[in-house]
# Entry
Amino acid sequence: MSEIRIILPKERFKALKGKDITSFLRESLPRVEETLQAEREDLLGEKVSKLEEKLREMEGEIEDLKEFYEKALRDKEFMMAERDRLRVENAELRKRVEEKRRELEEVHGS
# Structure
């Protein structure tokens, strides 16, 4: 069986001396339960507040990540379009260089 220790001020102990402790504890139990319930509710309320604040922070971070992702996606699309444009331009430039080379070979080769 567990041991329960109750610490009382000296004056309170003297007042209880000679009284039925069991009935006193039974009478006090509902108030103690109410007090413990109120303390638990306060503690849970504080935890809920902290969790709600953390949730708001996380929602803000998610929104920031969403904006970052959307910008990265736009940048990727832009870079892919730019890459395709440069490939076409590069192909045209190679074609021109090859034509110039042939022209020079014809001029110098003749």
Observations:
- The chain has a mean pLDDT of 91.
- The helical segments are 10-16, 21-109.
